[in-house]
Write a structure and sequence with these properties.
The protein is α/β, with parallel strands linked by helices and about 375 residues long. The chain is about 40% helix and about 15% strand. It has one domain: TIM Barrel (Alpha-Beta Barrel). The protein contains 14 helices and 13 strands. The strands form 4 sheets. Strands 3, 4, 5, 6, 7 and 8 form a 6-stranded parallel sheet that branches. A 3-stranded parallel sheet has the order 9-10-12.
C-alpha cells in the first residue's frame, strides 16, 4: 500500500519427495512440486485455459473508501475497479484491507484516523456491498473450489486480504475472526513492527530480527486454518521464520507483491537466497509495478514493461517458473506507468512472449502458479 508516494510514504527445489504434516488432527503427506516438464503441466490442471490472470495485491478498497462509494464497481482516478476488471477479463483479484499503524486519515479521505477494527469494517462493507449488488459479475472466493466455480459461472473471483497483521493484537481468537469474515491472506507486517514480527528496514540489525513468539504460533495457526501467509514488507529474519514454518507444515507461503533485490535494492524486495527458499517451499512472488521496486536507481519513477520482464526472468532464473506470479500493487503505488491500469496487463504477457517464454510459461505467471498456491494454501 502506498509504497513510495511522496504524500503517503517514503518507506523504507526441495529434494524431499514429500512432507508429513498435521492439519486439524490428521497427518497428511503433501508432495513437493518438482520442476520437470511433466510436473509443470500438473501445477493446477483444473485452471488450465480458464482465465487471463490472477493478481495477488491491490489497494482499491482504500481508494473506494476515500471516494466515499458503496462499491468498487466504478471509481475515478484508480488503476482497478469492477468495470475494468471485466474489461481485462480478470480471473481473480485479491483486495487488500490496508490497516496502517500510522495516523494518516487523509489516505482514506477521513478527518480522523479510526481504529484498525473500524477501518477494516469500512473497507469490508465496500467489498460486501459490491458482491451483493453485482453478484452476477463478482463473487467472493475462499479456496480453489470456489475460484473454479466462479469461473464456470462467468464471475470474477474476489479474494479478501489484510495488509498488516497489527489488527490481530496478540490474540489467536482474532485470527479465527478474520478467517470467518472471509480473509484468506494476511500480509504479516507493513512498514512498522507489530505483534507478529519485524518489518523490513535499512538497518541490518533490525532487518535480521524475525517473528515474535506469538507471530510464530500465529503463522502455524493461519496455515492450519487455510489463510495464506504473506511475507511482503517483512524483515529478512521474519522471512526465514516463515520459510521454516512452511517447511514444517508443507503449506506454501507467498511474497504477494515483491520483486528482486539483485535488480532493485529496495529492502521490500527478495534476495536471490530468499527467492530460492520461497520456490523450494512451493511459494510464489507477485511482480510489483512500483518503480522503486523495479529500478536500480530509486529516483527513477517510471515503471517500464521491460523492467518488469527483467524481474520476471530473474525470478525464473533463481527459483524456476513455478515461483512467479502477479502482485501489481495497483492503487497503492505512484509514478509513471506503462501499465497504467489492469486493462493493460496483456502488454506484459506479450512482452514476456517476446522474451522467449512459451505460452504455457506465460499462463503459469498469469494465473496457474497463483491458482496452485490457492489450492494448496487456502481452505
Amino acid at each position: 500500500m502506498y509504497e513510495n508516494s511522496g504524500n503517503r510514504e517514503n518507506a523504507v527445489q526441495n529434494p524431499a519427495a514429500g512432507i508429513l504434516y498435521k492439519v486439524r488432527g490428521f497427518f497428511i503427506i503433501r508432495k513437493r512440486q518438482g520442476s520437470s516438464p511433466e510436473n509443470k503441466k500438473e501445477l493446477c490442471p483444473e485452471m488450465e485455459k480458464m482465465m487471463r490472470y490472477i493478481d495477488m495485491h491491490c489497494d482499491t478498497l482504500g481508494s473506494a473508501l476515500a471516494q466515499k462509494t458503496e462499491t468498487f464497481l466504478e471509481l475515478d482516478r484508480t488503476m482497478v475497479d469492477g468495470l475494468r476488471l471485466q474489461q481485462a477479463e480478470a480471473g481473480a483479484q485479491f483486495f487488500a484491507m490496508f490497516l496502517p499503524q500510522r495516523n494518516d486519515p487523509d489516505w482514506f479521505g477521513l478527518e480522523e484516523m479510526p481504529s484498525a477494527e473500524v477501518l477494516m469494517r469500512k473497507m469490508y462493507d465496500i467489498f460486501c456491498h459490491t458482491m451483493e449488488q453485482y453478484g452476477d459479475r463478482f463473487a467472493a472466493a475462499h479456496n480453489a473450489e470456489e475460484l473454479k466455480q466462479n469461473q464456470n459461472e462467468g464471475k470474477i473471483s474476489a479474494f479478501l486480504t489484510i495488509e498488516n497483521g497489527s489488527l490481530i493484537d496478540g490474540k489467536m481468537d482474532k485470527i479465527r475472526e478474520i478467517y470467518d469474515l472471509g480473509v484468506r491472506l494476511v500480509t504479516l507486517t507493513w512498514n512498522d513492527d507489530n505483534c507478529l514480527g519485524h518489518c523490513h528496514s535499512q538497518k541490518p540489525e533490525e532487518m535480521s530480527r524475525g517473528l515474535t513468539g506469538f507471530g510464530k504460533e500465529a503463522v502455524r495457526y493461519m496455515q492450519e486454518l487455510g489463510i495464506l501467509v504473506d511475507v511482503s514488507h517483512l524483515s529478512d529474519g521474519g522471512f526465514r521464520d516463515v520459510a521454516e514454518a512452511s517447511r514444517r507444515s508443507g503449506v506454501p507461503f507467498v511474497a504477494s507483491h515483491s520483486n528482486c533485490r539483485a535488480l532493485a535494492p529496495a529492502t521490500r524486495n527478495l534476495t536471490d537466497a530468499m527467492i530460492r527458499e520461497l520456490a523450494e517451499c512451493g511459494g510464489v512472488a507477485g511482480l510489483n509495478l512500483e518503480p522503486t521496486f523495479l529500478n536500480e536507481d530509486e529516483t527513477d519513477k517510471v515503471s517500464r514493461i521491460e523492467r518488469i520482464c527483467d524481474h520476471a526472468m530473474h525470478l525464473i532464473d533463481r527459483g524456476g517458473i513455478e515461483c512467479v506470479g502477479l502482485g501489481t500493487d495497483f492503487d497503492g503505488i505512484s509514478g509513471e506507468f506503462e501499465i497504467s491500469d489492469c486493462t493493460k496487463l496483456p502488454l506484459l504477457f506479450d512482452a514476456l512472449r517476446k522474451r522467449g517464454l512459451s505460452e504455457d510459461a506465460v499462463e503459469q505467471i498469469a494465473y496457474q502458479n497463483t491458482a496452485r498456491v490457492i489450492r494448496d494454501g487456502m481452505r
